[in-house]
Structures are given as C-alpha cells and as structure tokens.
Amino acid sequence: MRTLDFWLRETGQNLRRHLLIAFAASGTMLVALLLVGSSALVLRNIEHWAAQAAAQAQVSVFVTWGSSRAQSQALRDRLAALPHVRRAVLITKEAAFRQLRRRLGDPAFDDLPNPLTDSIRIWTREPGDLDRVARAARSLPGVRKVVHDSRTVGVLTMIKHIVILASGGGIIFLLLAAAFIIHNTIRLALHARRREIEIMTLVGATPAFVAGPFVLEGAFHGLLGALLASLLLAGGYLYLLSVWHRFVPFLPLLPGMLLVDVAAALVLVGLALGVTASALSLRRYLKRHPAH
Amino acid sequence: MLEYRDVSVVYPNGSQALDGVDLAIDKGEFVFVVGRTGQGKSTLLKLAYREVLPTSGQVVVAGKDVVRMPASRVPYLRREIGVVFQDFRLLPRKTAWENVAFALQVVGASRREIHRRVPELLEQVGMAQKAACFPPQLSAGEQQRVCIARALANHPPLLLADEPTGNLDPQTSLETLDLLARINLGGTTVVMATHDQALVNHVMRRVIEIDGGRVVRDQVGGYGAEEAGA
Asked: Across the interface, do B91 and A291 touch by the CB < 8 Å criterion?
C-alpha cells in the first residue's frame, strides 16, 4: 500500500511535469483505439447482418407444369434427402397464389385463374451451400426452374473483408505509433529522473520498485486513451442507433450493449500496449544502467 | 566488516584501477583511504556497494561475498551501506527533509517511521532548522550534512564517504570530519576517501594509501608526524 502510494505520487508528479508529452501519448492511443473500436463495431454489425441473411437464404425449386401433388411431394422428399439441406417445405400452388393475391392487394386479381405451379422451398445448412444445392436440384427430374439468391450473403462477406483489409493496416500502424510514443515518453521520463533513479538504487530500492512509477505511467496513457476512445465511440454509436432506423430500416443495428464488450476490449488493448511499451523502455534503460 | 581479497579491477577501456588489493577493515573502525586523484580510491569504495565488479578477487561485506551475490540481493546489500558523495547528489526539487525521507520511502518505510526518523537524522547532522530548505538554498557544507543524514537513514553499519570534503572550505571540511567521527563513535564503520593530508592528521586514525592501484601504506595514527609537517 505504501509502495503504491509512493508510485502514484511519483507518476502524478511526472505526468504534471511533462504534460504536453503525456497529452501526445494518450492522444495517439486515443486515435488508434478509436479506429480499432469503430472497426470492431462495423464488423460486428456486418457479421450480424450476414448471419441474418444467411438464415434467410433459401433455394426455390419449381416443379414442371402439370405435375401431380404426389409428384411434388416425392420431389420434396428427394430434395430433403440431398446433402447440405437443412429443411425442405412444399408450397402448394394454391398457397402460393393466395400469398401472391394478398401481396398484390387488388381485388381485380381475385377472379384470375391460378398461373402457378407447386414449389419447394429449401434452407441449407450453411449459406455457402446454396449454389451446390441449387445445382443438385436442377439435375433432378420433374424440376422446371431453380431460383436462389446467394448475392446478399456474398456482398456482406465482401464488405466485411474490405473493412478488415482497409482498417487492418491503419490499425496496426496507429497502434505501433501509439506504442512508440509511449515508449519514448517513458524514455524521456527515465532520462529526466535519472538522478532519482540513481539515488533510489544506491539506497537499496529494488528494480521492481524503481520500475513501478514508469509502468504505471505507461498503463495510465493506455487506459486514458482507451477510456476516451470508448466514450467517443459510445456517444457516436448511441446517436447512430437513434437515427439509423429512419435511413436503413431493413438492416437494424445491434443494440448498445455491444459497446460494453468493445470498451472492455479497448481497455485491455490500451493497458497491454501501455505496459509493454514502458516495460521495453525500462529494459533498455536498466541494461545501460545496471545495478550489477 | 569489509574485506578485499586479492582484488584487481581493469576497466573496459584497459586502465587498471586496482591491482591485487588485500585489505580488511574491522567493525567500528574509522579508516582514511588516501592517494592522488585517479589512483583507485573511488573504485575501492564502489566495489563495496557493487557499483563496480572486480575483474578478479573477492569483496566481502559483513560476511557476504559481494561478487558472487545474485543481482536480486544487491538492493538489500546497499541498505546496509550508507554512501556520501563529493557532489552530494541531492534532489534539487525536494527539500532537505524530503531528500532524507526519500531514502526511507524507497525501502518501504511506513509514514510513521519516516516522520519519526527524518527529524532525528536532521538533528543528528545539525540541520533540523533547515529541514524545509531546498538544496540550492543551502551552503555546500549544509548540503553535505543532508547527504550524510540520507546515508544514515537506514541505520547502515558501514558508511562510505567518497571525497566528502572535496567541495568544502577547510573549516567546513573539519566540521564534516568531526560529524563523521561522531557517527563512528556510535559504532558505524566509516571509510573515507580523501586526498587532504591535514584532514587525515586531524583525527589520527588508520590510513590506507593507494598508488597505481596498489596499497602502498596501511598504518594507524594518520600520516605520521614527520610527513604531516612535510
């Protein structure tokens, strides 16, 4: 407790003494973690949308004209037995026509004869199986037409990869820059306090005791950057949540609870980077100034 | 208390600081280490608190082999040795009180212990009245007293003073020497490196002279009357 008290006072003193440098170190960490956090939010939402689209993705198989109900039923059974098929449901032409009339909503269509055929709706186990199952269905006898939409999942997956590629380089660069600035900040602090360190080691302070305030300072920069980045992200995301449904109602965003996970991850990344950067500075300094 | 067994030190630049030194300093002794600048006096002292490692030989402090000691034990060795420097090495942004307290803080002393011990130490060196002064506000002699108080903070049985009067006028030098002699009377072993002959003859204690890295004199009673007069 006494040691922690001493460390905190020493750290506070050093931060006050080099306010501008401290500001630069925490600021860079803030920008880097802001980019990490926003990328994480975008990716989590895209993954969510892709999963939703995948759950809805299906293949529609239309039977040949004039097929009997028993033939449609037999085709459904064959389709259900195909590999990668999760579920296959027969949609009778009567049910499909009722649905169509409901969708069109105009009573003028009520008197028209039913132009449809029976169809079978298939859900696959994985979204990637859509093409394979559609190909297999086409080769079966009694099949007139096979319709499926694998584009939505494909487009979302592509956007996800673009986001990872575009932000990945920037994130790595900014995180390295933040770590480098913290590393140099601690080096400056070590240089500024070389006299104190020399006296500390002479009167019998352990290396861990000497290192304490500097590790704390690195952790402080990481933590401050992470907390500020989390606050900004939370503000931005909550605002986006309040207006998003007006512009993109068909793709709902994940609820704000997601921010808790992202903030926790940012704090961990910030702390780890800050502590590692300062530990590297200390190692270098202690190598040059050994206590023998 | 302090023993050197066939100790040699060659620095990385090739200069030989000590050459086969054999010495034993007993508990409670007051010893002067004398010699011209650059003859190995400071190296001899630095070996004791492992600021320097010997190229060969053995250094023993209070029964502990300093050379073979693992690095993790060095801080604990240093808590048993007080060191006083020619240039004082005080922290300019800390008051006299804080400079002394610093030595106690870094070894984990409690706040109560610090508040009890610091005034006691400042009193012992005659600096109680100037506890709130910063080093630049103190004279050289006063700064050296604060430095001595700091060196005594952890009750070290051994006090090493490396040219403690090098920056002081003759009168202040004598006062500092008297202070060290008083500390010695309390049972602390004192080893003081100096090149001031007058000072050595002022208290007439054991004198070890180093020349070219070798011990060329080891006698009790100062330099001796004939040389003091020379």
From this structure: no
